[in-house]
């Protein structure tokens, strides 16, 4: 199709020139397609080894502009959302039943990212106004709320508890100054992973804003994997459970026997 | 120095675990018990998921009871016949225990069951032990000679059918109560991550009047085999045995037990039982506090779903 069109376009250079001028004009009117984001992660693979105590990954990004891109009156804003592998999380609430405190009610958060981090160059509320937070699903609270569920009040204590407890475990993080601009168009942001962050795929979504409007959105990802001995142990324990169990029993017996040999007192 | 536990999927301080293993090993060496009843709760309080704490602890008890049982075997203070009957009952109990453990785990009630069991079992056993040892101390103070076993005096449960003679243990009676006891211990052991020596030893002494000389060795023999079975069954059915955690606990425990055994030699019988009773009761009370006192945070999180 392109091949067929080429001669036609060649014969109408004037028209193309006019179109280009029009496109430039349109670009200044509709800025949504003007900038592009280029992303790079310091690593795409976090390996869990025996001394693993968590990790840190750095997102580097550049905002690409070309000569037709209009000058912006306001500075660029970046919002980075990192989502870990999805699992179901149950929030339980204890209540007094007679003399005991027991788990009485619970809410299930199905397919909730086990890890969530929202990093931005400014507090999210300043980057985009209320309706845009919902529209672009920005911020931690938006990530754990299914669309249309924002108004349900009975869910609120459980949502709050989920946010609070996950933040305590450092599995949820919100850093309104987590994105640093090195130049007006180049930024970096460190993502910290605690040791309890589960293995699996992590999506990194970067959104570019100016004056509360989203200009570009780009995603990349990394994975957290067990390696070497740790991976071998898990594989053995799950796929060859009998062998693994026997191995642990034999190890225990040998250690117990060794103790009698080493510390024999008679 | 931190070390990553591949099955528990968390990073823990290696020296904390070694020190805990040594401390519990010291106590277990001193009292001649496995120490599971202290170690499993400590692991849970440390933040290790209860399922992993219980399953892994069975491996540690296996190691410590190998050491213990070998020592008693060398001194010929072990009744293999009685031990064999106890093991048979223990196996059935362990099998039921692991099954119950997995069902409760699937229903999401495992943590609650573990806590409730610790409170009730340890509360009852600890109180009984405390009362008994206080009575014994009181009696020695007043110079009363403890009543010794009279021939011809038999509790009713030894008169049940299927009688067997155990020469080393000076016991002739029905195996039904013995097997039942072993089954209960095996069941509790698999669910709670305890060897059950602190229940089995006094039960054999008070309920079956077995001489103290063979009772600890025989109970260690039973614990060794039931805990081997429990480790294997936990590993096969719920994959919760963490080999790295087990190794750290075993190494710490082996070291501690050697010093504990020496310290235990200078301890008098009554004060020995009093201390053990206080420890058992203490663990029960510690768990009771968790469910009686208003929690700092009424909310808690559980993540479910298959691991990749």
From TrEMBL, chain A:
It holds the Pfam family Alph_Pro_TM. It comes from the Bacteria. Keywords: Membrane, Transmembrane, Transmembrane helix. The chain crosses the membrane at residues 241-263. InterPro entries: CHP02186-rel_TM (IPR019088). This is Uncharacterized protein (TIGR02186 family). It comes from Chelatococcus composti.
From TrEMBL, chain B:
It comes from Chelatococcus composti. It is found in: Cell membrane; Membrane. The chain crosses the membrane at residues 12-31, 37-59, 80-100, 112-131, 171-204, 210-236, 243-261, 273-293. Signal peptide: none annotated. One of its GO terms (cellular component) is plasma membrane. PANTHER family: MEMBRANE TRANSPORTER PROTEIN MJ0441-RELATED (PTHR43701), MEMBRANE TRANSPORTER PROTEIN YTNM-RELATED (PTHR43701:SF12). It is a multi-pass membrane protein. Belongs to the 4-toluene sulfonate uptake permease (TSUP) (TC 2.A.102) family. Keywords: Cell membrane, Membrane, Transmembrane, Transmembrane helix. This is Probable membrane transporter protein.
């Amino acid at each position: 199709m392109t091949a067929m069109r080429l001669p036609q376009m060649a014969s109408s250079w004037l028209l193309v020139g006019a179109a280009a001028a029009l496109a430039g004009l349109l670009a200044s009117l509709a800025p949504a397609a003007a900038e592009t984001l280029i992303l790079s992660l310091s690593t795409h693979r976090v390996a869990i080894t025996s001394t693993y105590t968590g990790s840190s990954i750095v997102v580097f990004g550049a905002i690409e502009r070309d000569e037709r891109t209009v000058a912006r009156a306001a500075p660029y804003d970046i919002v980075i959302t990192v989502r870990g592998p999805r699992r179901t999380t149950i929030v339980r609430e204890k209540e007094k039943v007679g003399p005991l405190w027991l788990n009485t009610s619970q809410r299930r958060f199905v397919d909730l990212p086990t890890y969530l981090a929202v990093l931005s160059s400014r507090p999210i509320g300043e980057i985009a106004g209320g309706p845009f937070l919902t529209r672009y699903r920005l911020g931690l609270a938006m990530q754990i709320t299914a669309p249309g569920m924002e108004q349900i009040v009975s869910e609120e204590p459980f949502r709050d508890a989920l946010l609070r407890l996950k933040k305590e475990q450092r599995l949820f993080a919100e850093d309104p100054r987590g994105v640093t601009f090195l130049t007006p168009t180049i930024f970096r942001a460190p993502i910290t992973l605690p040791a309890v962050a589960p293995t699996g795929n992590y999506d990194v979504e970067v959104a570019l804003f100016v004056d509360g409007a989203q200009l570009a959105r780009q995603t990349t990802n990394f994975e957290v994997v067990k390696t070497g001995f740790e991976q071998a142990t898990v594989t053995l324990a799950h796929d060859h459970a009998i062998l693994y169990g026997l191995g642990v029993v034999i190890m225990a017996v040998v250690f117990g026997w060794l103790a009698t040999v080493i510390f024999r007192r008679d | 120095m931190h070390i990553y536990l591949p099955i528990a999927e968390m990073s823990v301080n290696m020296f904390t675990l070694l020190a805990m293993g040594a401390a519990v090993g010291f106590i277990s060496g001193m009292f001649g018990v496995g120490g599971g009843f202290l170690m499993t709760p400590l692991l849970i309080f440390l933040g290790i998921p209860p399922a992993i704490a219980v399953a892994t602890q069975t491996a540690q008890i296996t190691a410590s009871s190998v050491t213990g049982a070998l020592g008693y075997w060398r001194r010929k203070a072990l009744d293999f016949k009685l031990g064999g009957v106890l093991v048979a009952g223990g196996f059935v109990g362990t099998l039921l225990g692991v099954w119950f453990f997995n069902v409760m785990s699937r229903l999401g009630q495992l943590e609650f069951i573990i806590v409730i069991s610790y409170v009730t079992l340890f509360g009852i056993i600890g109180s009984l032990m405390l009362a008994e040892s206080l009575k014994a101390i009181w009696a020695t103070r007043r110079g009363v000679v403890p009543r010794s076993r009279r021939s011809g005096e038999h509790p009713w449960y030894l008169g049940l059918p299927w009688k067997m003679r155990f020469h080393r243990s000076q016991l002739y009676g029905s195996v039904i109560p013995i097997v039942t006891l072993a089954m209960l211990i095996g069941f509790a052991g698999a669910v709670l991550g305890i060897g059950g020596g602190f229940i089995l030893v006094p039960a054999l002494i008070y309920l079956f009047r077995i001489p103290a000389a063979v009772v600890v060795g025989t109970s260690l023999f039973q614990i060794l085999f039931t805990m081997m079975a429990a480790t294997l069954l936990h590993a096969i059915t719920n994959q919760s045995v963490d080999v790295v955690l087990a190794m750290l606990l075993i190494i710490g425990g082996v070291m501690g037990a050697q010093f504990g055994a020496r310290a235990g030699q200078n301890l008098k019988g009554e004060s020995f039982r009093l201390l053990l009773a206080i420890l058992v009761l203490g663990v029960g009370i510690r768990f009771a506090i968790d469910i009686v006192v208003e929690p700092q945070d009424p909310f808690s999180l559980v993540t479910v779903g298959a691991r990749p």
